[in-house]
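worker-03 picked up job from queue 'complexes'. Input manifest follows; two sequence lines, order preserved.
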Amino acid sequence: MTPSKPRVGLFITCLVDMFRPTVGFSAVKLLEEAGCEVDVPMDQTCCGQPAFNSGDNASARKVARPLINMFADYDYVVAPSGSCAGMIKKHFPELFADDPLMAEKVQALSDKTYELVSFLTDIMKVDGVPAEFDGKVTYHDSCSGLRELGVKEQPRKLLNSIKGLEIAELGEPESCCGFGGTFCVKYPEISGKMVGDKTRDITQTGAKTLLAGDLGCLMNMAGKLAREGSKVEVRHVAEVLADMTMAAPPITGKEGE
Amino acid sequence: MNVSTSPKFKENVHDALRDESLQRALGRLKSGFQVNRANAISKMPEFEALRDQARDIKNHTLENLDHYLLKFEENVKANGGHVHWCADAAEAREVVAKICRDKDAKSVLKGKSMISEEIGLNDFLEKQDLKVVETDLGEYIIQLRHEPPSHIIAPAIHVHKEQVAESFRETHKGRDPNRSLVEPRELLDEARDVMREHFFAADVGITGANFLIAETGSSVIVTNEGNGDLTQTLSRVHIAIASLEKVVPTLEDASSILRVLARSATGQEMSSYTTFSTGPRRSDDLDGPEEYHVILLDNGRSNMLGTEFQDMLRCIRCAACMNHCPVYGAVGGHAYGWVYPGPMGSVLSPSLIGVDEAGHLPNASTFCGKCEEVCPMRIPLPKMMRHWREREFEKHLSPASFRYGIKTWAFFASKPKLYRTVTGIASKVLSKMSRGKGRIAKLPLAGGWTDMRDFPAPEGKTFKQLWAEKQSGKGGSK
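worker-03 finished. Artifact:
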């Protein structure tokens, strides 16, 4: 008798839902190939982070509360984002710290929530993917995934399993790209300086493709690269791991189109 | 208290980003402080355990602050020193002025002290006709330039050596106008030579304190130039100014924290000089001041006790947070507009000068978490910046348009069906606006984004729309 498949509730994230569905389908494919049964609760919206980081905890709770029930019955909750997974795993317990009725449920959700790539390697014990990719990529460590969830080696491990793919590390892979959610529009000049430093670093690697695990950071860096007329293509790491780069053009499209 | 320009943070940032000289100077943070700290820590496998220990020592002290402060006072007095409890900056300044008057002092020497910046001491003393000389080289340089420090351990980090030479030529009269002031060594020698005259003439020496030790009644300073020692031993009177949270229970506790301090700050194992001052000169001492005073300054600290900001009182002013902060690295210290820049300042300044004054600072963070990663005292700096944002939101200090935006977003995000419809339309519209190019160069109401970079266009349909289509195609929908 084979053990039943773990049931994963996919937390799509609001940015992937609206801007880059291909990341969602890549996540589904990777999870299914890893032996999971994937379900997508259709009433999910956002993790509440924009409100939480703006100091509006009441709004954050209002957005977060339905999720806690919606995902209660899955074995795992997985998000293709270190930032949103970090919000649920690390910050939901803080957000509901004064609500004893919610505490247990929130902790249970926190315990079973993971960022996609680290879930594949650390929980599902995936150590390689059957994808193909030809060329040199570079990888940006998004801050929340890196510092809140310890996502560092996992994406590199899976990327290195892809034949033909070579990783050219950034000079400063752990430096923030300057996205920071609402920060990038509240303090555009600082954000612009930070992402400019980042794109210089990206260009210096000589990589053709930039990958990362968080769409917010990717949109920021892709937007800057496009503004600079760079030919570097930007994708979510899941698209490459799932071998779905044919499903959509790179973020901000191809230069010259 | 020093006047802040924190409300003008955005203008300060604008100027800082266009200041080529500053930008060149900020480049030194990475090659200097960051690399040195990383090297020092890589040689110390127990560093993480030491951080825990340091945090625990301070937490214990803060939980029993009254006890240790009283014990400290008792021991200072037993050693023949004086303790002055001051509630705010004005009281502290007045105590210093009175001591200077009582001793008929003409000149005051200063060791590097952020607390004296906090209370605006130099300006105040100069108005009392006292000659004030900063003895730390960096502080001396910015004193000559009439500037505040831009960094808490490297106050003149924004200044280039050519600018230092310029200030020296202007100030140090009576020297050979053709002398060479090119190499750092030459600048250092000249500063040392000038300083020596001041040291011998000093009436009152004022220092800060890195620690106050309750069990011995000692104040401790760490320096790399030795100027602090001379300031406090050669002057007739030594005044140490320290905020309340500088106290630790024992010598042993101070040495534990010293092990993480210099490594986090400059990457040294220890600073060149660690100086313990315990009371005035005794009859058989070879040197030392005739009088020893400690000013215990509250200035807002006790208001932080028992609040979500108490952890900030663990700060030992090592500057690791600002040395590693991408925002500090982009704009430098002056942009923050008050005494304490960088992440520690973004948490501390609102406590000390009010969140209505310093409200930008805790907002100007991406929450990248690097500051917390390097803080030797494990202060959860991003979390506390978020707490300030909560206070601002509660007090309606955040801009109305921003508050309205968040509330509107929360309204939609808590109505799943409506949310699906609206995001579906938005995806489609934005996708059309890109005219198949995958990006939008200018977007109404999103100037904050598109002034700096293109806006990536959505693929067209939302994931949920596509997922629903796929599920119904399979003949079974969720």
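worker-03 released lock.
Chain B has 25 helices and twelve strands.
The first strand of chain B starts at residue 82 and ends at 86.
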